[in-house]
Amino acid sequence: MSEFDFQTKTRVAYGIGRSKQIGEDVKALSGGTHAVLVTDPGLVKVGVADEIASALRGQGVEVTIFSDVQSDPSSVSIDEAASVIRESNTRCVIGLGGGSAMDVAKLAALVAGANHPTEHYALMANPFEPKQIKTIMIPTTSGTGAEVTSTVVFSNREKRKVWGWDYDLAPDLALLDPTLTVALPPHLTAATGLDALIHALEAVAGKRGNAIIQAVGLQAIRMISGSLMQVIENPQNLEARGQLSIGSMFGGMAIEQGGTGIAHCMGHALGTLARIHHGRAVAISLYHAYEWNIEGNEAIHAEIARAMGAVHTTSTSVEDQAHAGAQFYRKLVEDSGMLLSLAADGLTLSNVDRLAETAASTENAPMRNNNCRYAADEDLNRLAKLILQ
Ligand SMILES: [Zn+2]
Fold it and tell me: Is the pLDDT of residue 354 over 90?
C-alpha cells in the first residue's frame, strides 16, 4: 500500500437550504461582520447572488459584491478582485458559483494579503504570504470540487492556463446546498458533473493512488454515476442533486491527494487553444482516451467500472470489466447530450500538432506524468487526432 499524508483542511457542511445560515458562519469563522462576495454575472441575473447577500444582511453581516468573474478567469480579473478585497479591509471572502468564481475568491483572498500581482505566484514561482482572510465556498455547480482543494487554475497574460497551489488556498468552510444548483442549465449540469466524475476517476487510476484516494474517489464515482442522468432528466430532484454535490466534493478531495491525468492534460490544452468549457474539454478528452488508458492499470479500471455500476458480476474477467467501464462512460457522455464535435468551437484536424504540443508543454506535465499509462509524444498526437476528428 502506498504512503499517504492526509488532512482535510476544509470543514464541509451539507444540507438542503444550508446556505441560508451564511451570516452566522461568517461571524463565527472570521469574528467580523463584513464579507466580500465573489460571484459571476449569471448568478446576479438569476437572483442567487441576491439570495446570499440578503441572508448575510439579515444576520447582521454587511456585504461588498464583486460580480465580475468570467469563465476561465484571467490573472487580471483576480487582481481586480484582490483590490476590492484589500480596500474593503474584510476578514472574510465568500466564493459563490462554479469553479471560476471559487478559484477567483480563493486566490484573490490570498493575493490580497500582499501587494504582488497574481502572476507572481503562478506555477509556484514565489510563495504566498500567510493567509489572513477566512474563505467560505458555496458551489452552485457540482463539478470542480474547488470548495475543498488547495489548487486554482487561471489564464496568464499570454493566455496560457497556469495554476497556483498553496495549503492556504484550501477554503475554511464549504457549504453544499443542492437548492443552489437547480438553476444550472442541463448542458452545464452535464459538463460539470462529468468533470467531477473524471476527477475521481483520474485520481483513483493515477500513479499516486492510495487508500484515502480510493475511499473518497470510488464513493464519488458511485454517487455521480448514480445521480447524473437523474439530475439531467429531472433538474428539480434535490435528492439526486445532493448526491451529485457530495460526489463532486469527494472528487475534489480525491484530486487533492491524487491529481489528475490524461483527460485533464488534453482538456487543459484544448482550453488553451479555444474557449471551451473545462468540463466539456475533459469529458471529450476522456471519451477518446478511456480505452487507451485501461492498459495502464486494468485492475483499477475494473474497480472503477464496478463503482460506476457498469458490471454486476465478478465472473467476467478483469479486462472485460475494465472495458465495460469505458462503454458505460462513453454512453453516459452521449446520453448527457454533450456536443462531442469541436468544429463549432473553431477546432479541426488542422490544429492536431498544436494540441499535441500544448499537451506536452511544461504547465501540463504534472497531469501527463501522473497518468496511469505513459503518454509518449506519438500517443498525444494520436489522441489529439481523435479529439479533433
Ligand atoms: Zn476538472
Answer: yes
Tell me the three state secondary structure of residue 174: strand
Q: What is the largest CA-CA distance in the chain?
A: 64
Class of domain 11-181: alpha beta
Task: Please state the domain extents for the chain.
Answer: 11-181, 186-388
Cβ-Cβ contacts under 8 Å for 358 (sequence gap 6 or more): 269, 272, 273, 364
Q: Which residues contact 238 (CB under 8 A, 6 or more apart)?
A: 16, 178, 179, 182
Place of cell 483572498: 109
Of 83, 88, 82, 39, which Cα lies nearest the Cα of 61? 88
Spatial distance between the Cα atoms of 381 and 361, rounded to a whole number of angstroms: 13
Question: From 3.30.2350.10, 1.20.1090.10, 2.40.50.140, 2.30.42.60, which CATH number describes the 186-388 domain?
Answer: 1.20.1090.10
Segment 302-348, tens digit of pLDDT? 999 999 999 977 668 999 999 999 999 999 999 999 999 999 999 99
Q: How far apart are CA 374 and CA 262, in angstroms?
A: 9
* DSSP tag of 89: T
The DSSP result for 238-293, as a single string, is: HHHHHHHHHHHHHHHHHHHHH---HHHHHHHHHHHHS---HHHHHHHHHHHHHHHH
CA of 267 to the centre of ligand 1 (A): 8
What is the rounded distance in angstroms from the CA atom of residue 262 to the CA atom of residue 367?
6
User: 192: CA distance to ligand 1 center in Å?
Assistant: 8
Whether 11-181 shares its CATH topology with 186-388 is answered: no
State the Cα–Cα distance between residues 378 and 176, nearest whole angstrom: 42
How far, in Å, is the centroid of ligand 1 from the Cα of 338? 16
Averaged confidence pLDDT in the chain: 95
Report DSSP letters for 216-241, one per residue: HHHHHHHHHHHHHHHHHH-TT-HHHH
How many angstroms is it from 32 CA to the middle of ligand 1?
Answer: 34
Q: How far is the CA of 155 from the centre of ligand 1 (A)?
A: 15
